[in-house]
Amino acid sequence: MSKIEFKLNAQMIEKIEAYSELLDKDANSILNEALTQYFENEEKKLLASDLEGQSAMTNLDYEEFWDDVEI
Fold first, then answer.
1. Where are the domains of the chain?
2. Which of 12, 13, 47, 55 lies in the 20 to 30 Å Cα band around 33?
3. How far is CA 56 from CA 3, 44, 46, 63, 67, in A?
C-alpha cells in the first residue's frame, strides 16, 4: 500500500481545529466525514455526467425527431 502525504495550508488547519472544538470531534473524524461527503458528491456528478452522455444521442423531443422525416 502506498503512503499518502497530505499538505494542508494554515487556514484549513485552523478551520479543522475550530470545528473540532465547536463540534467536540477529533480532526480525523471531521476529515473522514468531509472526504466521505466529497466522494459521494463526486460519484453523483459522475453518474449524472454518464447519464447525460448516454442520452446525448436522444436529446430531441418527439416533434424535433420526426420533423424532417418523410414517409
1. 10-66
2. 47
3. 40, 18, 15, 17, 18
Cell of 40: 459521494
Output the nine-digit C-alpha cell for 70: 418523410
Distance from first CA to last CA of the chain, Å, rounded?
Answer: 63
Burial degree of 30 (CB within 10 A; 0-12, 13-18, 19+): middle
C-alpha gyration radius of the chain: 23
